[in-house]
Amino acid sequence: MRLPLLALLTRGPAHGYELKQHLEQLLGAAYPQPNIGQVYVTLGRLEKSGLIDGEDVEQSGRPNKRTYRLTDAGREAVQAWFEETTDEPRVRDEFFMKLALAPESGLADPIALINKQRRQYLNTMRNLSKLAAAEDRDNRISQLLIEGAMLHLQADLDWLERCQEELE
User: How buried is 87 (Cβ within 10 angstroms: 0-12 exposed, 13-18 middle, 19+ buried)?
Assistant: First the structure.
């Protein structure tokens, strides 16, 4: 959450609720919606670490709101984040750990686990398809997110087939 918030602040000062709304609009309904409490806790931590500066802004008839702006150190952190590649190997997959340990424990049938996981992936794909149809077609970021998730799920389904072939 911290780096996406910093990246949004590169556009200019904003308060927490604006940042939350912008993330929701940008990513659409397929991406887990940020909790406003989490946004403000993260902003507080970013301020303490010197990556953003906060300023209270008076509002008539309402409590003050806190607006945040990026510091030079925050801008450098965002730049470094964009320059890094993302390395998320799937070798620590929880399902695969269950599959590997099922025969060892004698408590679960590996083929039954595969079938149950396959049903889960297919249900998730159906839900994503419905979400894609309901999502604003002009929100290309959201559509790409959904498409990427569906491609990952298809790869996972293909991998389950391979596992089943090896274990039968």
Answer: exposed
> Which residues are CB-contacts of 21 (< 8 A; sequence separation ≥ 6)?
none
Rg over alpha carbons for the chain, rounded to the nearest Å, is: 21
Q: What is the pLDDT of residue 15?
A: 93
Of the pLDDT bands very low, low, confident and very high (cuts 50, 70, 90), residue 122 is: very high
Beta bridge partners of 68: 14, 54
Mean pLDDT over 131-156 rounds to 89
Q: Which of 47, 55, 59 is nearest to 6 (CA)?
A: 47
| pLDDT at position 134 over 90 | no
DSSP assignments along 122-163, one per residue = HHHHHHHHHHHHHS-TT-HHHHHHHHHHHHHHHHHHHHHHHH
Instruction: Give the total residue count for the chain.
Output: 168
- Alpha carbon distance 150, 16 (integer Å): 31
Handedness of CA 38, 39, 40, 45 (dihedral sign): positive
Specify the amino acid at residue 114.
I
Mean pLDDT in residue range 95-110: 86
